[in-house]
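Field reference: "sequence" (input) and "structure" (output). Example, Lipoprotein:
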Amino acid sequence: MRKLLLLSVLVVLTSCSHRFLDFTVISTKNIDMTKSSHFTRGKSRVSGKDKVHVIVFIPTGVPNLKEAVDRAIESTPNCIGLLDGVVYQKYFYGIIYSQSGYVIEGTPLIDPSLAESGIEIPKYRKIYLDKKGKIKSSEEITSAEYLAEKEKMTKKTKI
């Protein structure tokens, strides 16, 4: 009986983490490489996560590595990328509830010219393009408006 109880506890607490990717430089932002000689390294490492929940074998989404990278980059002001980092894939499997996701860790790559310019870069912006791909207009939006737009777009693309 004790062996069965121990085995069931071990099965319930099963989780795994493995090194998915090592990288030298990674970014999801557009970087002006002509200014690369002015970039600096951050003093401490940062991390970003993206995970999804699985309830009774039904996933609530798909973990997105780009979201994890964005969260790590956005955790440091004026950061444009990450250096010398690692991506881990982590998951926990249970019978009723599970989790799966990515964790990224790295040293921030900072562009000091963003701070010196004094320009506040909006976090979210909606851009309208004409049929030729030229920018017609642009407007700053809130986080709630961004999430609403994102939800509309993902609903349209689901199969």
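The mean pLDDT is 85.
DSSP finds four helices and eight strands in the chain.
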